[in-house]
Each structure stands twice: as structure tokens, then as C-alpha cells.
Amino acid sequence: MALNQKRLVKPMKKLRRLFSKLDSDPVPEQVHDLRTNARRFEAAFQALALDDAGIPNSVLKDLARLRKRAGKVRDMDVLTEFAATIRPHDEEECHVRLLEHLGARRQKQARKLNADVRKLGPVLRKEIDRAASRTVKLLRANGGGTADNIGATATATAVKLSAQLASPPRLNKTNLHPYRLKVKDLQNVLLMAEGPSRPRFVEDLGQVKDAIGEWHDYAELLAIASKILNHTGRCSLLADLKRTVESKYDEALALAVKLRETYLDKGSRPNKKGPAAAGTPRPPVWEAMAQLAG
Predict the structure, then answer these.
(1) pLDDT more than 70, % of the chain
(2) Residue 187 has pLDDT above 90, yes or no
(3) Residue 144 falls in which region: left (phi positive, over 0), alpha (psi -120 to 50) or beta
(4) Which residues in 99-180 belong to E strands, given as ranges?
């Protein structure tokens, strides 16, 4: 089969180590690794149907809780990094106030993450270790076509996710960030495939995912800054942020539209009463998905 065992098991090993290392003040790299590897484990769990292999769904529930908690810490890390690069003229006080606010929120969320890891980590380590062992056994299985069935399951998941790229018919500021989750989920499944290099489609999914994420992060920073920086008169820091948010949105939207134009057929036009018809994936998409099945 054509699923890469190392790519599937590596996130599980990283998660087990992270549960042992995380403290009340984790470094940004640890927080990022927790979120990224949790997402990849969730994708593998669904694509390989690990619940049928004896791994309880409660693992996903508990891991999702940690991932979301880590996401709140990660948000503050990213927003602090963005805020630190802003050098507005005559707004030093606002700049310092914003950075202090982000730092305080980061500390609060980091303590909550540490508490959840201490509570859920021991059981999760055991279950994820079992999941890694089951995954290896499934991938090495020869009898009854088990390995081929896993590849087929992963491919079917990718086909379903790729069809969702055509929806909604029009992307805007309201639905662009939820659309990113579809892009991320599909990319995570396709990254399970064996192969010396990634297909261009997978790389383009990553580019769109990152661009939308960056726009959304800047929009969040603007929302926070607008709430805490309430001095009278024009604030050049807020003005700079607003321009950046609009620029990042235009860039992200253009990349998302280009992705659909490049990799999906237009399909039939949606009528005013009925839903939009999903665009059919073009050959490069099928080729990327075929690597999962071998």
C-alpha cells in the first residue's frame, strides 16, 4: 500500500513526549507542535478508522480539548510576534499596552493548558501509544487485505474532503476562515501518502491554509487592539493594522479562488433556489489522492 508509516506514527510519538515536557510556561515551539500533531493524529484516526481497531473515541475528545487550549496559547504567541513588528509613529504607549495585554493573556492560557495536560496527559499517553502500535500492525498486515482496506479508507476520506472544496460557492470574510479548516483537513490526509516528494496540489493547499490563517490572525489582533486602545483621536497603530488586515484578506482570498479555479471544474451554475453544484476535482487532485491507495 502507499501510506507512509513514519508520517502516520511520528505525530503520535511527538504527542507522547510533549505530554511529559509541557509545563506552566511552554515555549512557542512546544505549543505549535502540540496543535499540529494533534490535528495530524485526528486526521489519521478518522482516515484509518482506528476506532474499529479498538482505540476509543474518547481519545479524540480529550485530545481536541488540549488542542483547543493550546490554540489559545498559540494565538497569543502569534499575535505578540505580529504586534512586535509594528512600529507606529508616536504610538509607543499604545504599542506597549498591546504587548502587555497579549503577554498577560498568554500566561493565563498557558496555566490552563498545563492544568489540562496534567489531568488528561497520563491516560492520553497510554491510548496514543496503543494507537501507534495498532497503526503499525494494521499497515504491516497481509492477511485479508487489511492494509489495502486502510489505503482505500484513507482515499475515500480524501475524496470526500476534496469535494467539499467547492463549497461555499462564494468565499468572503464570513466563511473564508471556516473554509481553511477544509483545506487543512484535506492536506493532513494527503500528507499520509508515501512518496519522495509532495504533489503540487498538496503544496498549494498549504499555501492557501497559511495565507488564510495569517489574515485571520491579523484580524484577531485588530479586534483586540481596537478594544483596549481607546484613546481619543486617530490611532496610527490601529490604522496600520486595518491596512494590513485588508491586504492580508485580499491575498488570502485570491489564493483560495485560484486554488479552486486551478483544481476544480466549475460545474453547473447554482440557481437562485437550489444549492450550488460541487465542482469536480481535476486530474492533479485525483493523482494526489491516488498516492494513498497505491
Answers:
(1) 92
(2) yes
(3) left
(4) none
Domain residue ranges of the chain, discontinuous segments joined by +: 5-267+275-293
CA dist 214 and 15 (Å) reads 25
Pick from 29-38, 193-202, 285-294 the range whose average pLDDT is largest.
29-38
DSSP label of 86: -
In 3D space, the residue among 197, 205, 200, 194 whose CA is nearest the CA of residue 155 turns out to be: 194
Computed on alpha carbons and rounded to an integer, the radius of gyration of the chain in Å comes to 21
| Cα–Cα distance, 184 to 161 (Å, whole number) | 10
Q: 211-236 pLDDT, tens per residue? A: 999 999 999 999 999 999 987 778 89
Task: At 262, list the grid cell.
Answer: 486551478
Biggest CA–CA distance in the chain, Å, is: 74
CA 38 to the chain's CA centroid: 9
pLDDT in tens, 32-49: 999 999 999 999 998 888
Residue located via cell numbers 507606529: 88
167: left (phi over 0), alpha (psi -120 to 50) or beta: beta
Q: DSSP per residue over 14-41, as a string?
A: HHHHHHHH--SS--HHHHHHHHHHHHHH
Domain 5-267+275-293 has CATH 1.40.20.10: yes
End-to-end CA distance of the chain: 5
- For 281, the 3-state DSSP assignment is strand
